[in-house]
Amino acid sequence: MAFLKVVPLEEALEVIESFPLERRVEKVPLEETLGRVLAEDVVSPIDVPPFDRATVDGYAVRAEDTFMASESEPVKLKVIGEINAGDTPTVELKPGESVYISTGAPLPKNADAVIQFEDVDREGDEVIIYKPAYPGLGVMKRGTDIPSGKLLLRAGTRLGFKETALLSAIGFSEVKVFRKPRVAVISTGNEVVLPGTELRYGQIYDINGRAIADAVRELGGEAVFLGIAKDDKDSLKELILKGVECCDIIILSGGASGGIRDLTSSIIGELGKVYIHGIAIQPGKPTIIGLIDGKPIFGLPGYPTSCLTNFTLLVAPLLRKLLGRESEVRKVKKRLAHKVFSVKGRMQFLPVKVEGENAVPILKGSGAVTSFIDADGFIEVHENVEILDGGEEVEVTFFG
Ligand SMILES: Nc1nc2c(c(=O)[nH]1)N[C@H]1C(S)=C(S)[C@@H](COP(=O)(O)OP(=O)(O)OC[C@H]3O[C@@H](n4cnc5c(N)ncnc54)[C@H](O)[C@@H]3O)O[C@H]1N2
Ligand code: MOO
């Protein structure tokens, strides 16, 4: 089947934008939230610490009892008990009294300072104090770390270990995050086999299946690799239908161009609707975008570099939107290392390697897997530009 109509990239992105996919929210146990994106603002329901607590091992005192203490005239206070971390103290300090207290234990009533044991002497049931303590010494007051009612994290925050620690501190055992989109990944082609298989003449190892599945996971989605479809109608149809059943999005690679055995487009048309078949970009012209049962299906080119460039351009923005990570596209300005010639009439995405302040073009072509392996990202060369000079400022969009 020939290309139906090659459209500009913007049109392809508009079609994807119009697809009926919604960001969904789910509650997950705290231990599963690392790397996920918060779907709710988090306000502390408690004071942290929840009680006035000792920050040192020593003696809890009424600071005013020690104001007259000096090396020459130390103050002696009676030690009336001991409080350990986890205790609920029942004692109440009266003038002239103190208690032994351990780090993390709640202060007894009327105490407002804790003097570390290294600074005092103990004689029997008395503690000897050589310098005044001030109110608050050795104490962390209730709510001074995190006050109840404080807004701690905004919806849209990606949770790293600092954020999960914060959620632990305020007692959250479950958190609302954006649901991971499930993405079915299918490789196609009679010549494509999985690593672990001996290569026969004419065969190659599947690169795209691994690359797409892991690119989906790297973005925070869930990938389901369904295997390699043969270049026949039944095999392709079976895996596509499996994908529609198990997943929110289906990605195929290979079989997208207009060759006689490139069946993908006609099968998608049969099962649903093909919106786009051919985009005016290089690499990645033979790309199919469709919908089956309301689920977006992408037919990406077979060449790994074309496939991954198009994944980055078309699929990654959709996944980011569903995951609440729109703002996380990494771009940097660099200088082109040397002159390059571009294809006229197609927007070109040229793989480049970043070396210091330079973007070094990789010119092996989209048929080489090392074009994208060696590349850090790509630069855009507009359709009406034929030559970019060395030293020109370019913007590099990173893969992943
Ligand atoms: N007559 C035309 N032929 C081609 C055109 C064209 O416009 N007219 N475009 C070329 C371009 S550009 C590309 S890109 C490819 C893409 O074609 P397909 O998407 O149909 O891909 P295939 O033909 O199935 O494969 C292309 C190439 O990639 C290898 N491949 C496929 N799948 C994998 C995989 N999972 N892992 C690793 N390598 C894979 C496959 O063996 C082929 O060598 O079409 C050009 N032809
Ligand atoms: O469109 Mo192909 O994807 O140029 O390499």
TrEMBL record:
SMART domains: MoCF_biosynth. Its cofactor is Mg(2+). Pfam families: MoCF_biosynth, MoeA_C, MoeA_N. It comes from the Archaea. One of its GO terms (molecular function) is molybdopterin molybdotransferase activity. GO terms for biological process: Mo-molybdopterin cofactor biosynthetic process. It catalyses: adenylyl-molybdopterin + molybdate = Mo-molybdopterin + AMP + H(+). Pathway: Cofactor biosynthesis; molybdopterin biosynthesis. Keywords: Magnesium, Metal-binding, Molybdenum, Molybdenum cofactor biosynthesis, Transferase. Its EC number is 2.10.1.1. GO terms for cellular component: cytoplasm. InterPro entries: MoaB/Mog-like_dom_sf, MoaB/Mog_dom, MoeA-like, MoeA_C_domain_IV, MoeA_C_domain_IV_sf, MoeA_linker/N, MoeA_linker/N_sf. Residues 184-321 form the MoaB/Mog domain. Belongs to the MoeA family. This is molybdopterin molybdotransferase.
